[in-house]
Sporulation initiation inhibitor protein soj (Candidatus Omnitrophus magneticus), 264 residues
Amino acid sequence: MKIIPICNQKGGVAKTTTAINISVYLALKGQKTLLIDLDPQANATSGVGVEKKEGTTIYNVLHGDITIEQAQKNTGVEKLSLISSDISLTGAEVELVSMLAREHRLKKALNDVREKFDFVIIDCPPSLGLLTINALTAATSVIIPIQCEYYALEGVIQLVNTINLIKNNLNNEMFIEGVLLTMADYRTKLTKEVIDEVRKHFGEKVYKTVIPRAIKLTEAPGFGKPIALYAPDSPGAKKYEEVVCEILKIPIERSEIEGIQQEV
């Protein structure tokens, strides 16, 4: 079972959009997938059409009140389950401080379902607090979304340092799965400059697929649907499917990757 947090302490980088749509396309390609909403804003929860106040949440799991299996919910997508979140998770950062093995609460809970899922995708909050540390301690690898804008790498160095710190002290098997460039607009020179800068910094860790700035991607959460169900033929949908092909190491036609410049 691969456990992959989608992590960046900077907000507005399409972190939740990425967590939702990677999870959905993994499931659509036959992978048994669990999406964990670890953000108190619960946007990943509503983004797959589940009410934020519907039953038990990841908060109850971290407290040890229930198991992962007891907390999981159906999403309407075959092979995709959800552990939802709500605003009560806000207090977990403080409450975890006094708990025994506080960094390992999520990892311990996930140990019980290692034979039940192929992938666990975790939508992390936009911070490097105890919730994110729990996700990274449980992780087999991590995906870092980076928006194609000025100061794209701002804060990412701190995140990489945190990842290395956790790797050295709490989880020596974790590695960076990939860096995903998001919200690209090829009509601007800036986007191309940012892509070059990020590829120069992270090298082969950067996915070939780049996620475009697309209206359908921003509309979909308002309808409680992932892009695969809301607008499956849109450029954003095609690109998230291609990212999942890269994760699964399924070959992608080069023309499809470069085609986004014509689609935008």
Q: What stands out?
A: The CA atoms of residues 217 and 227 lie 6 Å apart. The radius of gyration is 17 Å.
